[in-house]
# Entry
Amino acid sequence: MLTRKKILLYNPNTVFYDMPLALLALGSNLDNDSYDVIIVDGRIDPNAKQAIKNHIKDAICFGVTVLTGKPIKDALEMTQWVKSIDPELTTIWGGWHTSLFPTETLEDEKTIDITVQGQGEETFQELVAALDNKTSLDNIKGICFRKEDSIVKNPGRLLRDMNTLNRINYDLIDVEAYFTKKGKRQFDYISSTGCYFRCTFCADPFVFGRNYSAVDPERMGEEFEYYKSKYQFDEINFQDETLFTYPKRIRKMANEFLDRNLNVLWSGTMRADQAHRMTDEDFALVKKSGLKRVLIGVESGSQEMMDWLKKDIKLEYVFEAAERCAKFDVGVIFPFIVGFPNETQKSLDATISVVKQLNAISPKFETPIFYFKPYPGSQITSEVVANGYELPNSLKEWASFDYIGSAGPWVSDEMYNFFENFKFFLKVGYGKRRPLFYPVQQFSRWRVANNSFGFPIERKVFELVRPAQKLS
Ligand code: B12
Ligand code: SF4
# Structure
């Protein structure tokens, strides 16, 4: 019997424990008879280096998935370490950061041999075959690579229909280890790639050119029946950019769940305009099929600001979505962003007001507020850069470009302090009811209603007892 060649894949360290869907997608689309895929996850494997070392000798390549920000630090250290052990092993970086910075990444770091742009399954299949057979990389679409002394960028690849890709083989990871780390039997899944919309703070339109592809609901029904019997999860966490793009598809998916008696809870992303297009019967159906929570990006309470962000959403749709989710007992996370370039006090006040109104509708609503950070690949970022804002220009600098605790220069200290207090007292006042803390919760609500955050002694005490966790 021929021994299978090894493909080593690495997910860098971050603090959340979402399953490494990118690496699973790559590994599941390689020929199982020829290749043995090893996924090492810096978040799960206590000794990731040793895990890599065990396989490095027989590996064809070392692939890393890379998000912009702190994960780059670990990705970089691990790649340099791998190269120091085996300088001949081809190292490949893929994911959002290298989709945004194909050539720059290679220019900056000699230990990275190839970067991959956009959807990766087919590109990786071709890359692995070329590396295995020692053939040319010249015709592989969607990559950037070193050739003699120069860096070559090949043409991009069109988005492939997700239905033509293989079912994800979750046995490539230790699924139970993720459940344990998450503290719940929550299964991660992505049912679509890309997004049709054009929000100016988001990189998706740049990376996928406003294209979109989704798995058919019938196939999802079959897959989940199989996965559920195998992994016994309670919840499905959809990682799609916009899960509710087509109400018809979601209706079919919900019916698949019900017909197959899946009996799971599920969560995913929904836009307010998509909620507007759904009927009450649709809401009743998705609820019955297990919908637990949706995430609806609002970003701003000001219609003017929303229009500037090209959200293509009317503020009234947000309230309509909120009322209907409350009616059907569906939880909602409504994320907001403050501190956009040139954002006025009027716009901030509008956001504060909408946040308060949403919290008053249902105890199942959350309104996280983020500070605008010019993530690369978005229209706003291009504009601020044209106006003199300097983005990091090395991988090392990108590794410190983390969104927690590092608001953009458009956020004054005063504004930052206000929102940190606002967020804290919102959470205390409108969070889980705790009879023992009833007076504190009521006082917090008063503080929020009156924007009165002087002497935030409650916050100081809380932070002393439970210091804030860093994101990544
Ligand atoms: C899960 C997730 C996370 C997880 C990461 C889990 C992990 N694996 O480490 C957590 C919760 C930690 C996270 C955090 C953040 N995330 Co996030 N996250 C996602 C999300 C929802 C899903 C990612 C995913 O699994 N996709 C499914 C897989 C199959 O797709 P994929 O990752 O694109 O992989 C494909 C290709 O990129 C390529 N590929 C990927 N890796 C590799 C590697 C190789 C070797 C090859 C060949 C190819 C390849 O092939 C894959 C298959 O086609 C995406 C949105 C989305 N739908 O993609 C946002 C997204 C990636 N996150 C984003 C952002 C902004 C953040 C945050 C800043 C906070 C926030 N507001 O969400 C933080 C900070 C990140 C950091 N600096 O630590 C942005 C992109 C930012 C960027 N430039 O990197 C996205 C795109 C959301 C958005 N539209 O703005 N995130
Ligand atoms: S923010 Fe969401 S809806 Fe807007 S472009 Fe990005 S992925 Fe699409």
About this structure: The pocket of cobalamin (ligand 1) is lined by residues 11, 14, 16, 18, 20-22, 25-26, 63-65, 67-71, 92, 94-97, 100, 116, 119-121, 124, 190, 202-204, 239-241, 375, 402-403, 472 (CB under 6 Å). The domain at 184-411 is CATH 3.20.20.70 (TIM Barrel). The chain has two domains: 5-153, 184-411. The chain is about 45% helix and 15% strand.
